[in-house]
Design a protein that fits this description.
The chain is built from 6 helices and no strands. It has helices at 7-22, 33-46, 54-67, 71-83, 89-103, 105-124. The protein is elongated and about 45 Å long. It starts with 6 loop residues before the first helix and ends with a helix.
Length: 125
């Protein structure tokens, strides 16, 4: 939160950025401490810092969650990247190939599976 920003403005800004990142509106779960820290700090402050685009942050996040084996989070991020037009199908596939060489084949295989699943769902729409 900046010095001239009220807590309610910080929450509004965090919810706005979360919606931008995920490509859909999320409810304000006021009173939930984990949600509040996520919105008020991660999205209002960290995702709004200058220097990196939303796409840059998405690429970094995909690399980090792939390295950690979090395919359930990768599914959310891959879908959001497609909805937001940050990455297309070919770029997502290339990310899996690239990451295989840095984070290992098993982790990248999970990401590739998530990408394939998400692209298949997208085609059905």
């Amino acid at each position: 939160m900046t010095a001239d920003q009220s807590p309610s403005e910080q929450r509004r800004q965090g919810l706005k950025k979360m919606s931008e990142v995920y490509g859909f509106d999320l409810p304000n779960l006021a009173g939930d401490p984990f949600f509040e820290v996520t919105v008020d700090h991660l999205f209002a402050d960290i995702w709004n810092r200058p220097g990196l685009s939303l796409r840059d942050r998405r690429l970094l996040l995909l690399g980090a969650i792939t390295a950690q084996g979090h395919s359930e989070i990768a599914e959310i991020q891959v879908g959001a990247a497609l909805r937001n037009g940050e990455l297309d199908a070919d770029q997502l596939r290339e990310i899996a190939v690239f990451l295989a060489h840095y984070v290992g084949w098993p982790a990248a295989t999970k990401l590739d599976g998530v990408i394939r699943k998400t692209l298949a769902k997208d085609k059905k729409k």
